[in-house]
Amino acid sequence: MDLLLLLLQLIAAVQSFFAYGTAYRLTKNGGDNGVALFGWFFILGLASLIPGLGIYLWFKYRDI
After folding, report:
1. CA of 57: how far to CAs of 4, 5, 9, 19, 20, in Å?
2. Model-level pTM greater than 0.70?
3. Could you tell me if residue 50 is left (phi over 0), alpha (psi between -120 and 50 degrees) or otherwise beta?
């Protein structure tokens, strides 16, 4: 059980790094200000709590 919890925390940490990169890309496409960056990072930070979703969004918006 402890190994599973550790693995989920590790995945969430990695996805939070991907969330920052994705938020930066999406901000450069649209608002290009601190409020837009905070908004995207907040939304994508919540998405990074779901295993796999943060990585999926990073791949989806990688080529923008």
Report:
1. 23, 23, 18, 8, 11
2. yes
3. beta
**Euclidean distance between CA atoms 45 and 3, whole angstroms:** 23
What the block records as the tokens of 42 is: 């907040």
Polymer length in residues for the chain: 64
As given in the structure block, the two tokens for residue 36 are 């837009």
Task: Summarize pLDDT for 4-63 with one digit per residue, the tens.
Answer: 999 988 988 888 888 888 888 888 887 788 888 899 999 998 988 888 888 888 888 887
- Residue-level pLDDT at 64: 65
What token pair was written down for 64? 């923008």
Q: How far is CA 63 from the centre of its chain?
A: 15
Beta carbons within 10 angstroms of residue 19's beta carbon: 26
